Amino acid sequence: MADRDFLKTNFGIETELTGITREKAARVVADHLRGSIQRRNDYYDSYKITALDGRAWKIMYDGSLRTQRKVNGQKVTAGRNTCKVSLFFAF
Questions:
Q1: Residue 33 and residue 49 in contact, taking contact as beta carbons nearer than 8 Å
Q2: What is the pTM of this model?
Q3: What does the pLDDT look like over 1-44, one tens digit per residue?
Q4: 3-state secondary structure of 28
């Protein structure tokens, strides 16, 4: 039975994205999971997506990322128009 204790443990997954706004990322995740979106209006301007099964996803600003985009197949700095996004999933 002890080998199944890990099934009771919470864990998280972080996916980092650039070239997409937090709002658009929230809409994509909510559409895919058929969940609801709540804008948090906190320091990170985060969004919380609650899936039908109750799991929560959080999309927020991540200052550790460099915003990038591709131009003619090359990575270049995206500038201020592109947001830095981290997608956290905790189960």
A1: yes
A2: 0.67
A3: 556 666 666 667 777 777 778 888 899 989 998 999 999 988 87
A4: helix
